[in-house]
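User: structure tokens for this one?
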Amino acid sequence: MTLDIYKTDGNTSGDKIELTDDIFGIEPNDHAIYLSVKAFLAHQRQGTSKAKERSEVRGGGRKPFRQKGRGGARAGTSRSPLWVGGGTIFGPRPRTYRQNLPKKVKRLGRKSAFSYKVKDEQLMVVEDFSFENPKTKEFTNILDALNATGKRVLLLTGKNDNVVYKSGRNITKVKVLEAAKASTYDILNNQVLIMQKSAVDVINKSFAESGEASK
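Assistant:
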């Protein structure tokens, strides 16, 4: 499978790039995508919410009233969960929400996401570019040329390019990521996936090293 390579002015460069069918052209596995996205979103949770139980609420050490003779139910503390101001029964406790996925499922999820993008014609490959200094205006001009302005855009770079990242981080709906760090959720959560040529090489190489590209 081949795709045209675009220049930053929006025109094709005349060159084409080969996309590995075992990565960009598989039959997408929806369940692998579901598991990958579910795990990713779970990992974003802090897991720090906490409610105090009856033993942790301040006060309540003294018996609020005598045991007998009042005609009401007995009570040993004013911090019982039955009382206003008392502790919480089975309240949230600090915990981790991390979910462990097999590596093969993670890779299958990413390959399925890339394949969906190609299938839906939402993937573009552009020549590698950078700027001398962070320039939001120049980044916006590139999006205009690629007809991606106003859309949710993910740009995958071949390496960690801090200048390109800073140029795009102030534009709404635009996210810049190093290709090796893109998750299944990142790949799918956009309307246009723009990959630098070197990013395609990184993806091809990463799956080839894992032995997954030929499976």
